[in-house]
Amino acid sequence: MADRLNYRIEVTGPVEGRFAEILTPAALDFLAKLDNTFAGRRRELLDARRRRREELQSGEKPLGFLPETRAIREDESWHVAPTAPGLEDRRVEITGPTDRKMTVNALNSGAKVWLADFEDATSPTWHNVIDGQLNLYDAIRRNIDFTTEAGKRYTIGDEPATIVARPRGWHLVEKHIRIDGRPVSASLVDFGLYFFHNARQLLARGVGPYFYLPKLENHLEARLWNDVFLLAQRELGIPRGTIRATVLIETITAAFEMDEILYELREHAAGLNAGRWDYIFSLIKNFAAHGADYVLPDRAQVTMTVPFMRAYTELLVRTCHKRGAHAIGGMAAFIPSRDPEVNATAIEKVRADKEREAGDGFDGSWVAHPGLVPVCREVFDGVLGGWPHQLGKLREDVHVTAEDLLDVASAGGEVTEAGVRANINVALRYVDAWLRGTGAAAIHNLMEDAATAEIARCQVWQWIRNGTKLEDGTALTRELAVQFLDEELAAVRADLGEGNRLDDAREIFTETALGEKLPSFLTTGAYARYLTDAR
Q: Which segments constitute the Malate synthase TIM barrel domain (predicted)?
């Protein structure tokens, strides 16, 4: 703890092992500079988020393309900054948390880019947050290895993936670092520590400090990030425009402001990414009160080919390429299995998904496991040939309206008992893993992260609220959902055995899926109770 420049910085988490190498006085001063400058604007933007959500839920102000920014959308002359070194070719990107094993494996995976994830794939314990920073610090300096339990040692190869770090969203705080008693923005902690320690080293290696920006809801939030970048570069004496950021379009409101988001970040923008589960979660959250017209079927049926999702992805490619930005596709979450039949079926589905993306003009796509890198690379190699991207594919044939983006009924499908139970089962398993410190969990041959828990439990909430009928005509009530919850809990408990956090997971599911409101499980009281300061 120290008093500097008229503010008081306090680290309440344990400074263990090598954590002091990250939590240096200079790094903490840098965080304080960022947070003191932008804390007020961040709070105002979060208040604006809440007000906008209330307007959408009430129907007071319909969602559409902003009339006040029409000139930005219609102006064909502006483009984002030229592609930065290491980001020219993004045909395969691997995602995962920043633990030591994943760091080495991701960098060696053969992917062009590694999304080093402090967000949905990381359970935000104090240890995970700071240990992740250490792992990236070591990796950038080529001073990292990993040894398996069998004694096999892995080091970084000669052509590692380009690191793109994903900080946590604007809505979260890091309670273990406080300035004048208030917790610091988790976004600024993750961004600031990584940038402060590594920006110059990255530039010396011929690349730069690159970031994925999650959970943005509008262009004003992108403007805040741009101002953070400007201040950070100025404070460290790094040329303006060195930072590059790719924005995840994973909220329904951001889908209506893609041009504007790129415009606000244009000297730092690298591209946009099309998510899935968070996007659907955002749609449900904002239109929860609009009745059956916005009720979606089993989540397995809401593929990227249903009309309203296809409208969103095609608009993303069209917008990116019009502005000279990369369009990055969604996640292939399959984990290779020992069962050859399971593998063959899943790989064909992954291949078909990547073929759709490459055919639509995406410049690359995500995978969650090194075993999927060859499949994704083969598909994009076949379309790209010797080119690193498809920026010349402008998709001028795409014309998407507000009605297209909001045509939830176009998904069709049905809600089944199996779908309800699957949502409950995977939510229990994931939250159990998350509470034990694992943010990327292998569940039923898929790599699941926090977005999984959000969509799984919010669908159950929506179905209960609307009295949605299952395929046999039975209405899903809270009482029936509780019955399913107890039965799935017993099945999962029998499978996992001792040492689990399933009772806590049940409480969180009950709080966030079976109550009147629809809070994020990341911001409930359960978060404060179970992720204690000591962790």
A: 162-407
Spatial separation of the C-alpha atoms in residues 87 and 388, rounded to whole Å: 9
User: Which helix (H) or strand (E) element contains residue 286?
Assistant: helix 277-286
Residue among 190, 429, 449, 457 flagged as catalytic: 449
Helices (H) and strands (E) in the chain, counts: 19, 16
> Which of these is catalytic: 49, 166, 276, 318?
166
**CB proximity list for 524: less than 8 A, separation 6 or greater:** 508, 511, 512
Q: What distance in Å separates the CA atoms of residue 256 and residue 404, rounded to the nearest whole number?
A: 11
β partners of residue 469:
475
Model pLDDT for residues 323-377, shown as the tens digit of each residue: 999 999 999 999 998 899 999 999 999 999 999 999 999 999 999 999 999 999 9
**DSSP state at residue 338:** S
CA angle 484, 486, 488 (to 5 degrees): 65
Q: What is the pTM of this model?
A: 0.95
Give first-to-last CA distance, the chain, whole Å. 19
Q: Is 449 a catalytic residue?
A: yes
Residue 290 and residue 57: Cα distance in Å, rounded? 7
Token duo for residue 294: 């916005």
Comparing CA positions, the residue from 109, 160, 121 lying closest to residue 369 is 109
Asked whether the beta carbons of 405 and 307 are under 8 A apart, the reply is no
Question: How far apart, in whole angstroms, are the C-alpha atoms of residue 308 and residue 310?
Answer: 5
